[in-house]
Amino acid sequence: MCVSPEDQKKTDHLLALDGARERLQLFKASLLEEGSFEHAIGGCDAVFHTASPVKIIATDPQAELIEPAVKGTINVLATCTKVSSVKRVILTSSMATLLSPNFPLGPNVLLDETTFSDPSVCEEEKQWYILSKTLAENAAWTFAKDNNLDLVVMNPGLVIGPVLQPTINFSVDVVIDFTKGKNTFNRKHHRLVDVRDVALAHIKALETPSAKGRYIIDAPIVTTEEIEKILREFFPDLCIAHENEDIDLNSMTYKVNVEKVKSLGIEFTPTETSLNDTVLSLKEKHLV
């Protein structure tokens, strides 16, 4: 589903997928338009809700991030409760919903599916993206409980991997920055996960009857030096600078329990493969 299915720039890459002409249908819908998903969801056995704006800086957080995330999620879930054929909903949330700015992160800290960000702290710290995803997931759980809806939530880290679309999204832009010697988050440690692993986890969550609750999807932590070394090795033609010495050495050092998602049969793609495939696809599309 998309706002403008007639816009070829937004749909041609989807229609070019194997079997798409026979099996893919595109419907006009909007996250903020109540009831706009009814035609698309009608007759479906399951629904994947994966859409929510990603921005770190917003001039109007309520309009740009919070309302589309929260209202959009509830609009989709509300439609699902009206369609008797829908048996399960898979919601793409984010690891951001585990990373409240007030958490004392450190090498001995272990995060798992029971961890939730504090919305009030996110608002105080102006962490608008974290706030939007946290409020949306909280609203989804409340709605699912009140309406007896079978909901499973996926919480991935920063998603990289080969791109389908001809445009640059936020997570891909992070990789592009690395190829230019920039570190978007000014961190020493990064939590990257391959889009193919994330997609498979969503499918497994649908196909596994016992799947329930939240699932963190997060590959092993990688340092800035390791990312730069991998990129220089695979792509010596790119201008990849060495790490900025001013990076916060203590940022984002924590452990994540991913045993639950591994129980679905997920084995994480090596970071080297993910980074290589990401940049190769960007080169093919002349984006780097």
From TrEMBL:
InterPro entries: Epimerase_deHydtase, NAD(P)-bd_dom_sf, NAD(P)_dehydrat-like. Residues 21-212 form the NAD-dependent epimerase/dehydratase domain. Pfam families: Epimerase. Belongs to the NAD(P)-dependent epimerase/dehydratase family. Dihydroflavonol-4-reductase subfamily. Transmembrane segments: none annotated. GO terms for molecular function: oxidoreductase activity, acting on the CH-OH group of donors, NAD or NADP as acceptor. This is NAD-dependent epimerase/dehydratase domain-containing protein. Keywords: NADP, Oxidoreductase. It comes from Brassica cretica. It comes from the Eukaryota. SUPFAM superfamilies: NAD(P)-binding Rossmann-fold domains. The keyword Cell cycle does not apply.
